[in-house]
Amino acid sequence: MTEQEQSNNGKNGGTPQGHMARALALAQAAAARGEIPVGAVLVHGPSGDIIAEAGNLTEERFDATAHAEMLVLQAGGRKLASPRLAECDLYVTLEPCPMCAAAIGFARVRRLYFGAYDPKGGGVEHGPRIYQQPTCHHKPEVYGGIDEQEAARLLKDFFKDKR
Ligand SMILES: [Zn+2]
Predict the structure, then answer these.
(1) What is the DSSP letter of 35?
(2) Nearest to 161, CA basis, from 31, 71, 50, 13
(3) Among residues 35, 53, 69, 125, which one is catalytic?
(4) pLDDT tens-digit map of 1-10
(5) What spacing in Å lies between the alpha carbon of 7 and ligand 1's midpoint?
(6) Are 39 and 93 in contact (CB under 8 A)?
(7) Regions of the chain where pLDDT drops below 70
(8) What span, in angstroms and rounded, lies between the C-alpha atoms of 47 and 96?
(9) What is the DSSP track for 64-121?
(10) Is 69 part of the annotated catalytic residue set?
(11) Where is 44: in which H helix or E strand?
């Protein structure tokens, strides 16, 4: 993680650990709203500034696509007035699903940091492994397993309470 820390020093407590801690707080807030606890933060890599942040909103918006990653890509694109977020890094508490992994590629995100691995629903290290497909034209640098245990515990507690 050392090379990332160099470019992310500065504002907003800008270390990968700090941004993931923020994503975890957003995941926790999502759980409190009855959403699957996943949180995401989009960071401008060079400055370390947070561009957008979100937790899942699928229930609230009646929208199966309102995953935290999709929401920060949409908000980030509007904020930077560009669909291409090539200087941005995305932090998310769970391995992105195939839809979000594809969207992160379309947005040309520089680095993807995720927390827990998701063997059942993930699309980066599992399932379709989106970035390894010949149809994928931009592959972010991927760093998985950051604060993995905390992210996994949030999900486990959420589904335990649901039963
Ligand atoms: Zn997703």
Answers:
(1) S
(2) 31
(3) 69
(4) 444 444 444 4
(5) 27
(6) yes
(7) 1-14, 163
(8) 24
(9) TT--HHHHHHHHHHHHHTSS--TTEEEEEEEPPPHHHHHHHHHTT-SEEEEEE--TTT
(10) yes
(11) strand 39-44
